Amino acid sequence: MLDGLLSTDQSWGFAGRLALQDLLTQAGSVWAVSADFSSLQKRVAPELTSLVSEIVSGEGSAAQHLTRAWSELYGRSPDPSKACAEAIKAMEAAAAPVISPENLKATLGTINADIRAKPSKFQTVLGDGNAAGSIEPVLALMDAAWKAQVDRHAGINPTVPVSAEQAEMIVSAAVIVVHWFALGSVTVVEDGA
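The structure corresponding to this sequence follows.
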């Protein structure tokens, strides 16, 4: 009932939604008011929630997909498969302009392949202070998420649904990857082309 009211009843206002959030926190509820104040969601570590709020407050496709992934994972009617699909799209939207800017149909799989084809073309700020860092940590997160979303295609074998635990890791990976790209922490090396 509260979830429905948050999404449809605008008379609560900002103060009313904050008061509800405080009440849920004081009561030790597993539920919290979402970052956009439009629904209830499962309570998540405040540090991660804060990072997600910062990312989704930005504009762009990656933020929109990450918002939907978060809602699908932690909302009142969770759907791990949809959460994963949105998390993958968030990573694609964040990474494609840097990794595969010429590919208007880039998927996370093609983005990962572009990195593997020429890893020296990309760098991160995770270096040792004397040199830029390798793209490998970014590729590892994106590749693990891509491979774990096993329900995106049908085939000869039965489709296995993504578990809630897998979805949580994929969405968390997306939060990190989208944040790194938003910060500009992944760049193209000029002479690596």
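The beta strands are 31-33, 40-42, 122-124, 186-188.
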